[in-house]
Amino acid sequence: MPQPTSRAIRLSRIHAINWYGYQDTLPVQGNLVLAGVTGSGKSILMDLIMLVLVGPERARHHFNRSATGSQSDRTIKGYCLLDTKREVNGQPQYYHDKGVTTYLALEFTWPDGARVETWGLRIEFKNAAENDGQITPFFCPGTLQKDDFIAISEEDGKRRARDLTSFRALIEAHQGRTYPSSREYLRDMHNAAHLNYNREVLDRLLPSAMSFTNLKSFDDFCRRFVLPSEALSIDDVITSYRDFQSYERELSQLRGQLTRLQTISSLATTRATAQQDRDTARYLTAELHHEHAQGLVNSMEGRLVKLRADYASDEQRLIELDQQILNGRRERERLLALVNESSEGRLYHQLTEQCERLEIDIEKLRALSMKIDERL
């Protein structure tokens, strides 16, 4: 199984030229351990790392705390001019009392080893009377050697720290740059195009970590290094929470509308399907009824053909009887006409009419007799 690729940018070299007795470049590989007796200069290198990473404005109040806690009087001037810890007429004495140029730098290497950046400070004190010195931050997109900070003096031929003009030309030749102030230097160093770290967290956490002192509690650590130093604006939080509640209500309403619309859509689909099934059933019923009726018609037609064949003689006899009845009626009418034309016939007719009238009169008399009986 392939090992995961590291994304850590590692410290690979420390440059300390004229930094409280250090005159060298120290390679850093793997897990580095700084060991030595008290006063051997371990905290001096720790302060160098802190100074390069957080800048002189923040680092000046935290020098040598890893050795003495909060009771340190170390300064940038004392580190550069090499404070001898002796006083003459109340004035501190320095080894480099006629001035000195100090170079502090950290080299960082990317995981692939192909990219290297060097960030550091050039600090120049012209004499011991100067308190702050001239600080020039610099950046070099590559590696630097100890000899890059040293030049041969034309006056006495000794190896001395490079002057500012010569050093700026060297950095620019490496496609680097010098900065007019620490603000621009720190701004570029922490951004994503370079070391890519959170400057606010490092500025608050690194000086405390370099002092190797424990805090009172984890809450104190969170207040000092995790939570922002300025007061939280709860108005924005309240507004955001109320907006969240409003959005939540709107989403609930929209979810309810969506549920109802989905139900309506489902019911509409069910209704359309039911209507299609109903129309299909009606069509199939009509089609089946038509087929059944057509079958009955065909069956009855066949039966009718058979009955006509079976009763053909009776039908012929019926036709003959109808013809005979018609002839009989004609004969009867002829005979009646003949009877009516004869005198006996007319008398018979008159007598018949008189009988009918008499029957009517008799019925009337019978009805009157019944009424008289009832009254009597």
Instruction: Tell me the total number of β-strands.
Output: 10
Low-confidence region ranges: none
Helical percentage: 55-70%
For the record, give the distance between the C-alpha atoms at the N and C termini, rounded to a whole number.
141 Å
| CA-based shape | rod-shaped
Q: Which strand-content bin applies to the residues? A: 15-25%
Structure annotation, total helices = 11
Rg from alpha-carbon coordinates: 64 Å
Sequence of secondary-structure elements: EEHHHHEEEEEEEHEHHHHHH
Strand order of the largest sheet: 2-1-5-6-7-10
| Mean pLDDT metric | 87
Structural class: alpha+beta
Q: Largest beta sheet, briefly?
A: 6 strands, antiparallel
List keywords for this structure.
376 residues; single chain; alpha+beta; six-stranded antiparallel beta sheet; 55% helix
Description:
The protein has helices at residues 42-54, 56-59, 65-68, 76-81, 164-173, 182-190, 199-210, 218-226, 234-310, 312-341, 343-375; strands at residues 10-19, 22-27, 83-88, 91-94, 100-109, 116-125, 134-140, 150-152, 159-161, 177-178. The chain has 376 residues and is α+β, with helices and mostly antiparallel strands. The strands form 3 sheets. Strands 2-1-5-6-7-10 form a 6-stranded antiparallel sheet, with helices on both faces. A two-stranded antiparallel sheet has the order 3-4. A hairpin with a 6-residue loop joins β5 (100-109) and β6 (116-125). α10 packs across α11 (343-375). The chain is rod-shaped.
